[in-house]
Specification:
Alpha 1,4-glycosyltransferase domain-containing protein; 7-stranded mixed β-sheet; alpha/beta; disordered N terminus; about 400 residues
């Protein structure tokens, strides 16, 4: 009886033993080959998975390494990692490029396109002094301390105008925060800045393009801090006025100040300044020193060194141009804007423990009222401190507020 075997061939087993054996051998060989191929495929997949895993893990080490350090990485890397080859005196190395944080401040839209017109319109209403602040953070973070700083501006300058450069504050929630001041007739406005417009035709224009295209490393220092360092310079160069940090309490009018920067510290013997600071800047439009600041920022930017693009930057520039023709500016002593060092700011928030301490508070408040334009609070050190009623800061805040709510809160 014929039977169908192996597809469509019909074989008579009794008459074709040789053919049967050949076909059986072919079947066994086919099964063995499939097993070998499967094993090779599994081993290959495991090897590739392990290789990709190693490639993904290796760059994590780079985040804690200084930018100039070159060290070997696997030759084969996952496509998910952006690896840049760099040539230097030690040969070819690789590092992981940090991605630029996604900041809405870089976004151009219908709101930012109106920026220039809004600035001109706002300052065209008899402003005694033009003030600027920057806020590159969530609107909900604009708290009591920042409101106190804004209040102090208007306590000393009832007819002044304050513009807060901030996309997040230029919103319904931001308007609600500022409304109590607006209801009292004070001129304050939050405006989403047009960052590309502000740096256009300055040395920072190329810096911004390189940063957005990934040619520059934003660094490990919070990038918002460095954006604020540049934004304050750009807006002063474009329009002129007074820039203040949001942790600065104004005590006296700035009306008489012109092209001024403050020293943070001085040499106790020579009385020469040793470091300047950029928390307070007063400059005319198109001032050459501000342009020099912008140029230095763009050319020497380093996002891994705290203060390099801020206080240390203005110190470097002024040290290089001081005494040269064409620059006209004034350097005020620490008592003007930085009457207390950041390491000692805590003493301004606390009540004294004895009669000597009370006498010190009275003397300090008296001195500040007569010699100081304002007090920088060094928020990084003092933001969590409570303002104790009767302390130096308690006295100053209570006397320089206009809403006068939550004075004794952090």
């Amino acid at each position: 009886m014929a039977a169908k075997n192996f597809g469509c061939r019909v074989v008579n087993r009794s008459k074709s033993p040789v053919v049967f054996m050949i076909l059986f051998a072919l079947l066994m060989f086919s099964m063995l080959a499939d097993s070998i191929v499967s094993k090779i495929s599994l081993e290959s997949a495991a090897f590739n998975q392990k290789r990709d895993y190693q490639a993904l893990q290796s760059p994590k080490v780079v985040r804690n390494i200084k930018r100039n350090v070159v060290f070997p990485l696997p030759l084969t890397v996952s496509k998910q990692n952006k690896i840049i080859r760099v040539d230097n005196e030690h040969g070819i190395g690789k590092f992981r490029r940090r991605r630029l944080p996604e900041y809405e401040i870089f976004t151009s839209d219908e709101l930012t396109n109106k920026f220039h017109g809004r600035v001109l319109e706002f300052f065209n209403h008899g402003c005694e002094v033009h003030f600027f602040m920057t806020w590159i953070a969530k609107v909900g973070s604009f708290g009591r301390r920042e409101i106190m700083a804004v209040e102090s501006v208007f306590k000393a300058h009832p007819n002044g105008c304050l513009m807060i450069l901030s996309r997040t504050m230029d919103s319904v929630q931001g308007y609600r925060i500022l409304k109590p001041l607006l209801d009292r007739g004070f001129k304050v406005l939050a405006v989403a800045p047009d960052f590309p417009f502000l740096v256009k035709n300055t040395p920072a224009e190329a810096w911004l393009d390189d940063m957005k295209s990934g040619k520059k490393d934003p660094g490990e220092i919070p990038f918002a801090q460095n954006l604020s360092n540049l934004l304050r310079l750009a807006v002063l160069y474009k329009y002129g006025g007074v820039y203040l940090d949001t942790d600065f309490i104004v005590l006296r009018s700035f009306k008489g100040l012109k092209n001024t920067i403050g020293a943070q510290s001085i040499d106790v013997v020579s009385k020469n300044w040793t470091r300047l600071n950029n928390a307070v800047l007063v400059f005319d439009m198109n001032h050459p020193l501000v342009l020099k600041f912008i140029e230095e920022f763009a050319l020497t930017f380093d996002g891994n060194k705290w203060g390099h693009n801020g206080p240390y930057m203005v110190s470097r520039v002024v040290r290089g141009v001081e005494g040269r023709a064409g620059y006209n500016f004034t350097i005020l002593p620490p008592m003007a804007f930085y009457p207390v060092d950041w390491m000692k700011i805590g003493s301004f928030f606390k009540l004294p423990k004895d009669s000597a301490g009370w006498r010190w508070i009275e003397a300090k408040v008296w001195q500040l009222k007569r010699q100081t334009f304002g007090v920088h609070l060094w928020n990084k050190q003092s933001s969590k401190l409570m303002v104790e009623e009767g302390s130096v800061m308690g006295r100053l805040m209570a006397e320089n507020c206009v809403l006068c709510k939550h004075v004794y809160s952090s």
